[in-house]
Design goal:
Radius of gyration of chain A: 27 Å
Number of strands of chain A: 11
Shape of chain A: elongated
Number of helices of chain A: 13
Oligomer: homodimer
Strand content of chain A: 15-25%
Largest interface: A-B, 43 and 43 residues
Helix content of chain A: 40-55%
Largest sheet of chain A: 5 strands, antiparallel
Distance between the termini of chain A: 57 Å
DNA sequence: ATTAGCACTCTACGCAAGTGAGTGCTAACA
DNA sequence: TGTTAGCACTCACTTGCGTAGAGTGCTAAT
């Protein structure tokens, strides 16, 4: 069967109405509200066709039609018009995102919060993965007799520290030397690369005095690197789902919140997604528990390289057009912000 | 009217039964299940008295009795027996808390998670407030021509960094000098004190070369200090509330989750609470939205000084005895852990 | 002072009837 | 041949009613 122009128009009308009302849409409604110049009976025939083709479903015999995942997919791919944000909306977003720029993590958190405010959905933001981030500088600093600080600075400006207790006595000179050696060895390597390249062996046979020092330090160095790879997940607007009819049921609400509470798992899923604006609808989400959800994510860039993500999750019935526009504008804005900031002050989280 | 021995026994039986079942307790139930040697009729009379005294309420005429906030308060103050944890339970807790010790924040987060697992309630943990933490060491490190790192180490081992872009050219010598001066000036001062003591003026008239440097650095120093004061709030087991009859209603569940989503406000409330094990029941929580909740918090110590908090929140109907025992054991354990760790490896978050 | 007995109250549950939105089919129409 | 009006049918949802059951409070007996 062919997807005629008229069928598309009807489908679009149904989607548009359903997204607004969350109620199954009847033929009469379409005929009255949308000026298609055809009678309810004709629309019913077309609807039956659309259902046969898989674009619509039927909660029960005497109910109106509801768009299927397939319909939303078609809508996102072909029918949807990206909404151009108004000057005002844009300025609000830019302004709100600027307010806290000097604190990277705060900015990201704030972006998530803003997004949930605008969309009335649950939103999230992921700080960049640092696998591509290269090491720039390693230092070892004496604090007192038994304590030194290991400090790692990455190209993106990320700093990480560990305070270490040293068993063997150390000289400041040795520390400097070891730090220089480590910097020399690791500079320019990405964190991932550095993690697979433990130089402790090469020190082993070197100057004896430094061997003990290196032994104390290297495990902590590795652990610190691992820690630098970690991303933070911020989530906002969780309670928004209570205002969404789809979750108007304790069981549904529970499983939604349970899913999002498993931050590790959810983070992994986000990391697996491609960059750019990605929309996954219903069953397209591999996970069973997300089969009733749509997920929209987009990536922002830090320093033109590192990639973080931001997005929303909600019922498949969502305003795809508006939301993608907002997210796109926000990620552009974030990427710009973090480009200007490049080399600037960037607080370690 | 006097609170006779028998009345207390009946009250305790009612509380005990209600805490378990969440159903209003009738006189027959008490008479049958609890061996008080008195008939339902007598119990009814006593119940009527207890109600008059304010310890019980009555959802409706033909329902059993429900303990009031006042009853729980009496229970917590006088009737409750602290449950001695079994060897096994203790060892599970100790073990789970040890697993991640090298990462302070992770340990705290883990403690919250463990607590919610044990209690089946929503739990939270607050990292220590650092107002009492004194500065130990300030350093300024050259990274490249335009970038330096400002590093602050506190007595408790907390480290904080900021990468700064420096406009004026700097010499390594000047950096060292400035760092030394700052350390000299701030060492031993608490963060709060340091925040009210901007030394930039005293530098103003000093060596000219360092004035520009200080100007670049001091605002960032202050901001970093402010940041060091911030506490982190971890929350776990949010979805547990869906299994609690009291929240078996979307409206209730929503307001609960909304309340806890406002992390800033909730954190402030936690900080305001006294140290030690504090139980607040229903209307005792100043906040209207927490009038149906009970909140149990306890404080743990880091290095014998800094104080963090951990606790649970749930309906007023909760197992006060067990929970306070668990929390007490956990905070003791945490305090011990962080005492041993004192001066040891402590990862900056 | 305690208890058995009993009338009374109130919620919760199930069932039946009614309502209304919406469909699918058929036959008439342009 | 595509479109439309008409109509019977379906099914969820609401409302009202009757009943069962749990529990109280009172009274009178022990």
């Amino acid at each position: 069967m062919e997807l005629t122009e008229r069928k598309l128009k009807i489908l679009q009308a149904i989607i548009s109405d359903y997204v607004r009302t969350a109620e199954p849409v009847g033929s009469r409604t379409i005929s009255k509200k949308y000026d298609l110049g055809i009678s309810p009976a004709t629309i019913r025939n077309e609807m039956a066709d659309l259902e046969e083709m898989g674009y619509l479903t039927h909660p029960h015999t005497s109910a109106g039609r509801v768009p299927s995942d397939m319909a939303y997919r078609l809508y996102v791919n072909a029918l949807m018009e990206k909404k151009e944000l108004s000057r005002e909306e844009k300025s609000i977003i830019s302004q709100r995102l600027q307010s806290n720029v000097h604190e990277f993590e705060k900015t990201i958190e704030h972006a998530a919060s803003l997004l949930s405010e605008i969309t009335n959905l649950t939103s999230f933001a992921l700080t960049p993965t640092k696998e591509e981030d290269a090491l720039r500088f390693i230092n070892l600093l004496p604090v007192d007799e038994k304590t030194i600080v290991l400090m790692i600075v990455s190209e993106s400006g990320k700093i990480s520290n560990t305070a270490l207790t040293i068993n063997a006595p150390y000289s400041e000179e040795n520390l400097q030397l070891l730090a220089k050696a480590m910097t020399y060895n690791y500079k320019g390597k990405t964190i991932s690369e550095a993690l697979t390249n433990n130089i402790i062996e090469s020190f082993e046979s070197d100057i004896a005095a430094m061997s003990g020092l290196a032994h104390d330090i290297m495990p902590n160095f590795m652990r610190t690197l691992e820690d630098m790879l970690n991303v933070n997940l911020y989530m906002e607007g969780l309670s928004n789902i209570f205002d969404i009819p789809e979750y108007n049921d304790l069981q549904k609400a529970k499983s939604f919140i349970e899913m999002l509470s498993q931050k590790d798992i959810f983070t992994r899923k986000l990391l697996e997604r491609d960059d750019g604006i990605i929309v996954t609808i219903g069953a397209e989400n591999a996970d069973d528990i997300m089969n009733d959800c749509a997920l929209i994510t987009a990536s922002y860039h830090v320093d033109g390289k590192l990639v973080g993500k931001i997005g929303v999750i909600g019922p498949t019935r969502m305003k795809y057009g508006e939301i993608t526009s907002v997210i796109e504008y926000m990620t552009d804005n974030l990427s710009d912000t973090f480009k200007l900031e490049s080399g600037g002050n960037d607080k370690d989280e």
